[in-house]
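Issue: ligand-bound run for coenzyme A - logging full I/O for the record.

Environment: standard queue, default settings, no custom constraints.

Inputs:
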Amino acid sequence: MSGELKIRALEDTDLNGVTQLDEKIGGEYRPDVWEHRITYYQRRDPEAPVVAEADGKVVGFMFGEVRSGEFGLEEPTGWIEVMGVDPDYRGQAIGRKLAEHILEHFRRRGAATVRTLVDEGAEEIAGFFTALGFEPAGLRPFARRL
Ligand SMILES: CC(C)(COP(=O)(O)OP(=O)(O)OC[C@H]1O[C@@H](n2cnc3c(N)ncnc32)[C@H](O)[C@@H]1OP(=O)(O)O)[C@@H](O)C(=O)NCCC(=O)NCCS
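Outputs:
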């Protein structure tokens, strides 16, 4: 990273940047998916979703929101739902800074807990959340094929 890192609220104009970053991470170009998601998060709570900008482009994002009254959890809970950091910019605390911003916002919105779900095989994501102080929670995911 040659320039300054900026963590800021997601804007409409980030659609291209987020779509390109997602393609770099996952190998799939999904503009429709991201247009839908960006609209969703901005309508729900425009201050919650954050992006990291460096060298004139989006190099990270973290989207989530505060919800309550779901899964038997009545208390307001911050949920981190989707995130990604550019592989060329990892290991520079960008993920941590994105999390600090969204967690601070969750606190301001009255949440006392933040939750996320991590696939059992996703060791890197589990390692990231563990480093940030997350611990396995007493919720069991259930699923069945349709
Ligand atoms: C997980 C991810 C967000 C980490 O981003 P990052 O900017 O490299 O992370 P940071 O540099 O802020 O690291 C923060 C902490 O997490 C730890 N960490 C980061 N990546 C890790 C990994 N792969 N394994 C173990 N720990 C890890 C770091 O060691 C650091 O701990 P420390 O502060 O105690 O040293 C990034 O690797 C990523 O985007 N992965 C793909 C995400 C994905 O698949 N998203 C789709 C599903 S939502």
